[in-house]
Amino acid sequence: MSQENKEEKKLQEEAPEQEHETKASEKEASKELRKEVKKEEKELKKEKGRIEELEKQVKELSDKVAKEKDDYLRLMAEFDNFRRRTSQEKLDLVSVASEETIKGLLPVLDDCERAIAALKDTTDSTAAKEGTELIYNKLTAYLKSKGLAPIEAKDQPFDTDVHEAVAQMPVQEDEKKGKIFDVVQTGYTLNGKVIRFAKVVVGI
Length: 204
Prior knowledge:
By secondary structure, the protein is α+β, with helices and mostly antiparallel strands. It has helices spanning about 5-120, 125-145; strands at about 150, 165-170, 180-185, 190, 195, 200-204.
């Protein structure tokens, strides 16, 4: 057998062996690649789980912050309402106390008016008249500074919002019908609010 034939035979014998080695090598590489892919998939799954956990935490924190903000806004609104209500209650308390005090002074004012009217018809000393008028003027000036004002009544049309009819008087003149003929007791308003109705006689 020639040398060439020997080499060719040798190559033919070695070929299946090399092919087998190549296949084994490819199989090993494929196995390693699959291992790497599995490892990467595992890592990816782990990262995905971590991201989901973080997203969950972010949502929980966002919800908590939103709730805290809502609670804070509600608390501020309640406090503002409480502050306004308390301020209003204080003002009402002062107003009521002032109103009650002034109401208590109205009979004194009435007595002063009666005393002045009585002294005008007497021949008593001028000092008594002047003294009474001085006291009356000081009292009315003080009460006026606090918001007290007399209700206009004489010759005014009868108004149930400020007048209280205690009697009726027949009148001849048509223009006096339905109007106030006489004032029995002066009425007053305090800062625009009626604290005593004017007691009047109405013409009919």
